[in-house]
Design a protein that fits this description.
mainly alpha; 3 helices
Length: 128
């Protein structure tokens, strides 16, 4: 069921994004969305190792969640799954944009450091 901007799945979430042992349970679409939102917070905090770890935990959850068949003719379930997929894709896009921004900022900083080293080396070579 879709309520507002959030997808509500009929069963309660069973996955705790902070507890890797819970990813062995049968994940719901809501579990994956919750983990994706945690990943977004990590991207905002520029915690790339944590983000990579959560992505590695999320991949098998997605496979398990989408390996279950959808009941033919259950339009509400189909709409709920579609809304959940769109929400995950939107979160992933935001993560990608934040990661690209962080990468660009890091590349600029590294370039500035490299320029500074070249200036220091050139000064040292000419001052001697």
């Amino acid at each position: 069921m879709v309520t507002g901007d959030r997808v509500m799945i009929s069963r309660p979430a069973s996955i705790n994004p902070d507890d890797p042992s819970t990813t062995d349970q049968d994940p719901s679409l809501e579990d994956i969305i919750d983990l994706s939102l945690s990943m977004l917070e990590m991207a905002k905090a520029q915690d790339l190792p944590g983000l990579e770890e959560m992505e590695a935990r999320r991949r098998p959850m997605i496979s398990a969640c989408f390996s279950r068949p959808v009941v033919a003719g259950n339009q509400e379930e189909v709409e709920s799954i579609g809304a959940g997929i769109r929400e995950i894709m939107s979160i992933d896009q935001a993560i990608i944009e934040l990661s690209e921004k962080f990468r660009n900022e890091t590349e600029k900083e590294l370039c500035d450091i490299s320029k500074g080293r070249r200036v220091v080396n050139a000064y040292g070579a000419n001052a001697g």
